[in-house]
Amino acid sequence: MTRTSRSTDELAEAYLTASRVFVGLAVQSLAAAPVEITLAQHRVLVLLASHGRQQIGDIAAELRINPSNATRHCDRLQKLGLLARQRSTEDGRVVQVALTEAGRRVVDAVSDARRQEIARLIEEMPVDERSAVLAALESFAEAASERADQDWVTNVW
Length: 157
Fold this sequence. Notes:
Elements: H1 8-29, H2 39-51, E1 54-55, H3 56-63, H4 67-79, E2 83-87, E3 95-99, H5 101-124, H6 130-143
Antiparallel strand pairs: 1-3, 2-3
Helix pairs in contact: 1-5, 2-4, 2-5, 3-4
């Protein structure tokens, strides 16, 4: 099999291997947060940073977790002052959550730490392979509907 005709299984295996690196980097970068948060809680903050205000049910659906788990994550993040809840002005029955300024600072600190470590690893890669890696990662992120940081729609309260 040629390098350009890799099977789905081979690609999945390569992404699985790479994902272990990324998960390790994600966990390690949480140390840059000014408060202690879990990886799942950080993901909630990133969802709010990238998509703006959300209902807890939407967060649960995006994370593919039970709404009660999403509520617990949001409760903890609210106690830390990283997100705030507010009733919708259109429908008083609906409660939305959004990042606070402190929450945005946490997202930025963790992202900056992660970006620096990833840049260090990229420096270890052969220069002539970087374009292919960039294209593959952009395509993968697009397939997963993940927004780049510069495309986030952050609304903070």
